[in-house]
């Protein structure tokens, strides 16, 4: 029973870390949002068996699939797959994604005895998704892979972003330690030590008398020894009753104890025994450059999403970099979104995936940064009348 609870605790901790990375980390969120902006349209256009959908069906299913695609991409990055169920809205079947955090998953082997899912492709291993919702069962789920499952017995909730999760957790750990260092350095820390001279009288009575004298200096109390004998040079100052503090009671200066003392009224003098050494502890130097670590993490995120950091681009190579990295990756994600929506529509209306055609506009490598670029294209006579209209709309939208 203890091992089961421990395993569930590890699952929930890993799940919380993944959600925090995907939803609340600015570097990751910015890259995911950029993918949304490039490939997710306001409404998805669908054709079935080469024919357009009826205007009524298209008006409902188009925006629904668009919103579904945006949420599905987020789940794909976090989990490596997209899991959803089919529900009906206003008499029309629509896909409903499992909310992040409402399910756990692992990798299981597929054998002849394994229960088949609806519209499942042939595979040897698959994701085993376990929903937490009381009214959703594993048989209701439809799973579409974004990344093929891989075997790792020690891996819980395998995710494409595991490396980023580990690095982000390291940054959180180092930030917490740095905060502790700042809190330590914000106050002074004093170390006191007592000087004890070797007694001239080596007898037991001499050592005992020295111990009594030390106790009296620190606490102001003595056990049966004549007080006059302990204070031959005058009364000792009234010391605190807490031996651990080694400090006497506060003696206020005459200029700071009166009602007209002003700001000096709050000053006080702390008196310690004369045989006490006082040393101030030095500040702690963590030797951690959080800026470098955060920049390293951001670079890892950019590389994960196959994007190019803006400081690494100059004007001469900007278009080449965009075409080589950003655009190709965006086109890859657009193709994944197309296959996902085809699979989703086929599951909703129980048709063959080959009969479904979904149109997602792939990002273009053509970068127009100024009107001179448009002028050059017009002079080369490569623009069609429809292209001119698109360029006009784009220019008017940016004005």
Task: Summarize, please.
The chain is an alpha+beta fold and 399 residues long. The protein has helices spanning 2-24, 26-39, 55-79, 162-185, 204-219, 227-230, 290-304, 318-349, 371-379, 385-398; strands at residues 45-48, 51-52, 81-89, 92-97, 103-109, 125-131, 142-145, 190-194, 276-280, 356-359. The protein folds into 3 domains: 2-176 and 290-367, no CATH class; 190-280, no CATH class; 368-399.
Q: How many β strands by DSSP?
A: 10
> What is the share of helical residues?
40-55%
Strand fraction: 5-15%
Straight-line N-to-C gap: 65 Å
Which structural class best describes the helix and strand composition? alpha+beta
Please describe the biggest sheet, giving its number of strands, its sense, and whether it closes into a barrel.
3 strands, antiparallel
Radius of gyration: 37 Å
Weakly predicted, low-confidence segments? 227-258
Element-by-element helix/strand order:
HHEEHEEEEEHEHHEHHEHH
**Number of DSSP helices?**
10
């Amino acid at each position: 029973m203890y091992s089961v609870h421990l395993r569930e605790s590890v699952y929930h901790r890993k799940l919380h870390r993944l959600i925090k990375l995907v939803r609340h980390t600015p570097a990751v969120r910015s890259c995911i949002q950029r993918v949304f902006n490039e490939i997710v349209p306001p409404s998805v256009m669908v054709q079935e068996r080469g024919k357009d959908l009826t205007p009524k069906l298209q008006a409902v299913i188009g925006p629904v699939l668009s919103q579904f695609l945006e949420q599905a991409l987020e789940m794909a990055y976090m989990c490596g797959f997209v899991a959803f169920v089919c529900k009906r809205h206003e008499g029309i079947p629509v896909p409903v994604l499992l909310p992040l955090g409402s399910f756990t998953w692992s990798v299981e082997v597929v054998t002849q005895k394994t229960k088949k899912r609806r519209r499942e492709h042939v595979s040897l291993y698959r994701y085993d998704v376990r929903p937490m919702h009381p009214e959703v069962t594993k048989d209701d789920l439809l799973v579409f892979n974004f990344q093929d499952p891989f075997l790792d017995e020690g891996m819980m909730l395998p995710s494409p972003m595991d490396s980023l999760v580990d690095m982000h957790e390291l940054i959180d750990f180092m930030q917490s330690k740095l905060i502790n260092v700042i809190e330590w350095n914000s106050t002074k820390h004093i170390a006191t030590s007592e000087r004890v001279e070797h007694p001239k009288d080596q007898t037991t009575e001499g050592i005992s008398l020295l111990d009594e004298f030390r106790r009296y200096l620190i606490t102001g109390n003595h056990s049966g020894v004549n007080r006059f004998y302990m204070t031959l040079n005058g009364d000792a100052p009234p010391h605190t009753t807490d031996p651990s503090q080694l400090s006497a009671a506060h003696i206020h200066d005459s200029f700071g104890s009166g009602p007209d003392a002003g700001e000096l009224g709050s000053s006080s003098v702390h008196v310690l025994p004369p045989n006490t050494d006082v040393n101030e502890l030095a500040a702690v130097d963590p030797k951690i450059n959080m800026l470098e670590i955060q920049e390293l993490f951001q670079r890892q995120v950019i590389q994960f999403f196959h994007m190019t950091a803006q400081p690494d681009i100059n004007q001469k190579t900007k278009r080449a970099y965009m075409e080589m990295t950003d655009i190709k990756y965006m086109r890859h994600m657009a193709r994944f979104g197309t296959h996902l929506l085809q699979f989703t529509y086929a599951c909703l209306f129980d048709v063959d995936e080959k009969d479904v055609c979904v149109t997602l506009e792939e990002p273009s490598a053509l970068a127009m940064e100024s009107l001179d670029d448009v002028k050059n294209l017009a002079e080369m006579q490569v623009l069609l009348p429809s292209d001119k209209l698109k360029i006009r709309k784009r220019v008017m939208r940016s004005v």
